[in-house]
Amino acid sequence: MKKERILLLYLQAGGGHYSGAKALSACIKEKYAEKAEAYMVDGLPEDELFVKGIIEDGYRITANFLVPLYAASYELSKLSPIMKSHIETFSKISTDYIAEYIQSLNITKIVVLHFFLVKPSRDAVERLGLPIPIITVVMDPFTTHPMWFYEKEGPFIVFSERMKRWAIEENGIREEDIHVFPIILKREFERRMSPEEVAEYKQKLGFRPDKKVLLFAGGGDGLPNGDRYLEYALKLKIDADMAIVCGRNKLLKFQVDLVTKRYKNSTVKVYEFIDFMYQLMNIADVIVTKGGPATVMEALILEKPVIIVDYIYGQEKGNVDFVVENRVGHFIRNPKKAMETTKALLENPESFEEMRKNIQALQLRNGTQEIVDFILTCN
Asked: What is the pTM (predicted TM-score) of this model?
């Protein structure tokens, strides 16, 4: 039987698109190597430095640090003429580039993980005259930008019934073209570490075995204002060891180091960019984070209550609503109030256990393999 050759198209606009492609690729390689090969490709040509800067650095900086500007541009981009202009411009930039990959790799199927790449993929396939299925994976679970559904032809993969209803009722997508699966996560998150493994890893990282662990983490750029949340946690003398992941954010690392110097008797581990987030999340009891879908769902699938202190305007609002409505965490921006709530949760076993039971009731699971199964059978 001829192998499927699957092109996974992403952009480096936030970590979720790339990590989704990586999870799908890893699953295909591990589970279906005899049936398929996956090729991960950034859908923006390398020589488009200006556009690349806007898509990658511009998105990251405005979404995290210039929120009013990001919110204004987000709302404007939902207007039909502007949406059309953005999509048509991107199609002119990427169509030939994508077509070259389709030809050189003999691609038989395309999976799109960013809305800017849907139209250029369709234009590339049409230009080549090839009958290649294109599957769009909408990477935001509950709320997202309507650009995902600018092109009306499916199939679309979404991660919630809420998103399915919105696609149908507000964006004119046919019901038969929308397929709901659990969210894509890294394969390791399908299993929680055992108590013995947690104890072993605590010792390895220098945490005290008899203490709870409070984790501050917010993706590749760290947790916005993470130093302030950490300082209030230390001021309130929360009875837990603490860890904060600063990622690539050098300023946050500098600010956190200043805080830890003022509280020398506390156990605080400060990390930059790490490759053991799975282990760190497993040893944590509560996770203070922002509203990104991957981090929130990774925490919940490990049965860790979350304290969300920030989110990206528009696309991440639904993740916050999901957490609050299902009583599996809290959303509090104020650092003092957020840490008071965290302290109460960690020091009240009844409240903590009730929240864990709420998480268990959601019956969350990793949808990566189910999605790969669908992709392989999609015609």
From this structure: 0.92
